[in-house]
Amino acid sequence: MRRANFRTSNISCVNQLNRTTSCSYSSQSQEDSVRKRPVRKTFLKSSNNDDLITDLCKHNKFKEAIDILCNQRRLKEALQILHQISHPSPSIYSSLIQFCRQNRALEEGKKVHSHLKSSGFKPGVFISNCLLDMYAKCGNISDAQTLFDEMQERDVCSYNTMISGFTKGGSLEQARNLFDEMPQRDNFSWTAMISGYVRYNQPIEALDLYRMMQNFENSVSNKFTLSSVLSAVSAIQCLRLGKEIHGYIMRTGFDSDEVVWSALSDMYGKCGSINEARQIFDKMVDRDVVSWTAMIGRYFQEGRREEGFALFSELIKSGIRPNAFTFAGVLNACADHAAEELGKQVHGYMTRIGYDPYSFAASALVHMYSKCGNVENSKKVFNGMPRPDLVSWTSLIAGYAQNGMPDKALEYFELLLKSGTQPDHIVFVGVLTACTHAGLVDKGLQYFHSIKEKHGLTYTADHYACIVDLLARSGRFHEAEDVISKMPMKPDKFLWASLLGGCRIHGNLDLAKRAAEALFEIEPENPATYVTMANIYASAGKWSEVASIRKLMDDRGVVKKPGLSWIEIQRDAHVFLVGDTSHPRSKEIHEFLGKLSKRMKEEGYVPDTNFVLHDVEEEQKEQNLSYHSEKLAVAFGIIATPPGTTIKVYKNLRTCVDCHTAIKFISKIAKRKIVVRDSSRFHSFEDGNCSCRDYW
DNA sequence: GTAGGGTTAG
User: What is the tens place of the pLDDT at every residue in A195-232?
Assistant: First the structure.
């Protein structure tokens, strides 16, 4: 019956609609019965409106018909109706143009424009402004510019539209030129220009303009202005100014909304006042997933892990669904803090709600597992990704490199090349690190040369630091020096620190002095240089030099960073400092360490006291060593977990030689696999051996 | 009389 209705329609464009619909209906083959039902459903649904549209057109109510079609996003059909009308009204044009703008339908918008020109319609300033905005929003600023130049009459809105357009795929300079030359400005003009500067990362200019605006009559900042201005304040981290604006908002608070609160919270967060950021966040009524994710991320940035994770749990409870950004943020924090158990829970949650294996949250999982030393899981997640991105490849390769499986790292790098993915400069850092950890000097050099010769990439300072690390660790100092003398950029602190590390291993005092001098110049505040240098002198028995280094540290007010280790047991992090006795089970831990010490000596352990900063009696040195934070954490791990459980300990600094030797013995005596992630790599101890093959 | 301006997340 409805089809019959179509056939009687005398509006040709609607007949065309009819043909399209009935064609798709009748073209279905017999065997296609499964698909038949849904198509029929659509047919019935749309036919209702089609009747109405036919009817409206019959009664010359074209505007209404076009509005219905536009609302159903049937722009092509709306255009067909336009072509049937001899003299379309301005409101028909404005409707169509605005729908094209909303739907970013540039092609259709252009058709309306050309129809308008060919029909001889002379658009007023309103329709022209609509066209300007349509072009600007569709990213076609050049057509907007052409039209703007042709316009006989322009009003403040025409200028504002162009300014806004220029500040978005256009140029800030052109926007500012228009802003300066326009005859009069209103709030829209000021806000468009200010937000443009913010968007182009020019916060100072944005704030200068805001100050100008305040001195300007008839322009009062509102919620639109303030949210942009707050963003500028965040960028320059000026808390004083931010507080001033906060005060202004409080005084005129009627005009603010969630967007302003969000910007205000962000301002406090970026200016380091995280508690105030949280207070504002708590007062917000319509907190969306973005504001939640931002607030959680602020905690992690500040190193306030517990609060970050707590807020994440609140988010889950709130019923708002976290998205890929949220997961990636939390997982990266888990990676940084080696919170594997928590990371696993997040992974479980993601699996339950069905995460998208194509999204960057999946690569964050790969990263998290790699950083937690669980390369097996890292690989599992990686294998589940239909199209692993370069971040995932890099995480997995770096994970293998750092976890004592450099061969696997290189194997995956070769797979990456075979997959046709173009490697970038970052993945090569992982590759070179793998070679360093495996002691594969010549292979590393080959990869190094391939970066430029085979892959056409530009060397970065990181690549040079890696290659110097590779050479210095294996004692090839002449080659290392040769690389340094020929590199195109100034060696950075990472390179010098690598060189110094190599000198420490091989006792190269002269070169160590040179590296340390360079480091003292670049970062005199870093205690690591002083400590390493003192240790090198101590190994050489040069105690007066050790003392002078210590004096230098004192004179410059450099404080040694305390060694800190932690272990996660049932999602709680237990943190240990050097010689720590604050843990509730401290007495047990020390007793256990005492027993272990005895067994270790029976097995042949000799404390290595070389790497101690202080020049003290041997027995005292031994005492110091037994209190190192990683030993405390390992001991606690053993007494706090069932036999056979793998112990995972994390240390903020590099593990010392003595602890390394001691933990090898402990792994054998306690029959435990012990994984220690220090500031540069993983050590996986098992049955008296370490995955790093004592090369780190 | 219409239209033109905004923040926060890996």
Answer: 999 999 999 999 999 999 998 877 789 999 999 999 99
pLDDT (0 to 100) of residue A612: 53
User: Is residue A532 pLDDT above 50, yes or no?
Assistant: yes
Q: Which nucleotide is nearest to A264 (CA to C1')?
A: B7
Give the model's confidence band at A49: pLDDT under 50 very low, under 70 low, under 90 confident, else very high. confident
Which A residues 119-178 have CB within 7 Å of strand B? 124-126, 129-130, 133, 137, 155-158, 160-161, 164, 167
| Identity of the residue numbered A586 | S
Nearest nucleotide to the CA of A130, by C1', is B3
User: CA(A258)–C1'(B7) in Å?
Assistant: 9
CB A191 within 8 A of CB A207: no
pLDDT band at A316 (very low <50, low <70, confident <90, very high): very high
Distance A542 CA to B6 C1' (A): 64
> In terms of DSSP bridges, do strands A674-677 and A682-686 run parallel, antiparallel, or are they unpaired?
antiparallel
DSSP label of A255: G
Work out if A328's Cβ lies within 7 angstroms of strand B: yes
pLDDT of residue A236: 96
Alpha-carbon distance of A186 to A625, in angstroms, equals 71
Which of the pair, A32 or A561, is modelled with greater confidence? Answer: A561
Q: Is residue A48 very low, low, confident or very high in pLDDT (cuts 50, 70, 90)?
A: low
Neighbours of A4 (CB within 10 A): 7
Any atom of strand B under 7 A from CB of A368? no
Distances (CA, A) of A524 to A71, A197, A517, A650: 65, 37, 9, 27
Taking C1' of B7 and every protein CA, the nearest residue is: A263
Q: How many Å apart are A11 CA and B4 C1'?
A: 37
Report CA-CA distances (Å) from A219 to A189, A213, A248, A268, A481. Answer: 10, 7, 15, 26, 63
Nearest to A508 by CA among A540, A534, A471, A465: A540
Residue A26 has pLDDT above 80, yes or no: no
Amino acid A225 CA to nucleotide B6 C1' distance, rounded Å:
7
**Can you give the distance from the CA of residue A361 to the C1' of nucleotide B10 in angstroms?**
8
CA of A37 to C1' of B5 (A): 48
Of chain A residues 408-427, which have a beta carbon within 7 Å of strand B?
A: none
Q: For residue A259, give the nucleotide whose C1' atom is nearest its CA.
A: B7
* Residue A402: closest CA among A375, A426, A380, A376: A375
| A 209-228 residues, CB < 7 A, strand B | 222-228
- 3 state DSSP class of A568: strand
Protein-proximal nucleotides of chain B (any atom < 7 Å from a CB): 1-10
Q: Mean pLDDT over all residues of chain A?
A: 86
Are A139 and A105 spatial neighbours (Cβ–Cβ below 8 Å)? no
At residue A606, the pLDDT reads: 85
CA dihedral A278, A279, A281, A282 (to 10 degrees): 120
Q: Which two tokens stand for residue A194?
A: 């200010």
| Alpha helices (runs of H) in A359-492, residue ranges in sequence order | 360-371, 375-383, 390-402, 406-418, 425-438, 441-453, 461-473, 477-486
Nucleotide nearest to A293 (CA to C1'): B9
Mean pLDDT of A118-142: 94
* Superfamily of domain covering A60-182: Tetratricopeptide repeat domain (1.25.40.10)
